[in-house]
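Class, look over these structure tokens:
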Amino acid sequence: MSPSPSPFPSDPSPIPAAPGATEPPALPSAPSLDLADVLADGALAIVAYAVVGVLLLIVGFYVIDLVTPGRLNRLVRTERNPNATLIAASGVTGIGLVVAASIWSSGGLLREGLIATLVFGLVGIAAQTVGMIAFDLVAGISVRRLVAEPTLQPAAILLAVTHLVIGLITAVALL
């Protein structure tokens, strides 16, 4: 038994256009991107976002310092207070999450992205700070007494985890 002939022609030449038909317009070609331009723009964006991010972390640290009794710098560096260190570290980490989420959600355009990161970062720092203060009050834990303790206290661990989670919640709200 011989194979039946294929209904498809074996000639791959294009089908001729109908009489009077015109060719469809050519699709626009993708803009030519020079690798050096792409790398320069990317490096500029990294530096710009890093500067804004570090500035927001510094602002966040000072906001945490304002709402924490005593000078955090002195409590951490001079007195080597583990409770103050844990609370400060968790607060800064939470703020870092907020800043990272602000950068992530800022969009593709550099100028607009930097402005959005700055605004969302500041709003996120404020929201996290209010959340930290509210939880500290609701939990009934005196941060003033806690940072006066010379040894690590279980309440400091609870507050640190809470501050991290508040930072995560605030960060996810930005996405």
